[in-house]
Amino acid sequence: MVEIKQIKLKGGTALGIKIMKDEKGPLVVLIKAEKGFIVCSNFSMKALEEKGVVAARIAGINSIESALETKIIEVTSKAREFGLKEGMPVKEALEKLC
């Protein structure tokens, strides 16, 4: 199952995507904003860094809603250029990426 949800922000709109592995939990949760991504811990930050992707990672979530209520634990160097940093609330980071 795939869930897609529009996320309205002050500066624009982001797109939340959740892909279920099975009924036990999601395989992937990510949020795509205009300039970059918020990704769950199933993504390799090393790979995203090597590809020059603007991305921040979160952990301990199981829905798009819980992703919006958590804080960033890791960012790529490109994300730092947009002002993202560890400990920043996801909603604040998304505003910077819209």
Structure characterization notes:
With 98 residues, this protein is of the alpha+beta class. The chain has a single domain (2-97), classed as Hypothetical protein YunC (Hypothetical protein Ta1206 fold, 2-Layer Sandwich). It has 4 helices and 6 strands; from the N terminus they run ββββαβαβαα. A 6-stranded mixed sheet has the order 1-2-3-4-5-6. Strand 2 and strand 3 form a beta hairpin. The longest helix has 8 residues, at 90-97. The chain is globular. The protein starts with a strand and ends with a helix. The model has no long low-confidence stretch (mean pLDDT 95).
Kindly summarize this structure in a few lines:
By secondary structure, this protein is α+β, with helices and mostly antiparallel strands.
Shape label: globular
Number of strands: 6
| CATH fold name | Hypothetical protein Ta1206 fold
Largest sheet: 6 strands, mixed
* Count of helical stretches: 4
Oligomer: single chain
Gap from first CA to last CA = 27 Å
**Can you list the strand order of the major beta sheet?**
1-2-3-4-5-6
CATH-defined superfamily:
Hypothetical protein YunC
The H/E string reads EEEEHEHEHH
Task: Please name the CATH architecture.
Answer: 2-Layer Sandwich
**Strand coverage percent:** 25-35%
Rg calculated over all Cα atoms: 12 Å
Q: Quote the average pLDDT.
A: 95
- Give the helix proportion (percent range): 10-25%
Helix/strand/pairing category: alpha+beta
Q: Give the tally of structural domains.
A: 1
Q: What's the CATH class, please?
A: Alpha Beta
The low-confidence parts are: none
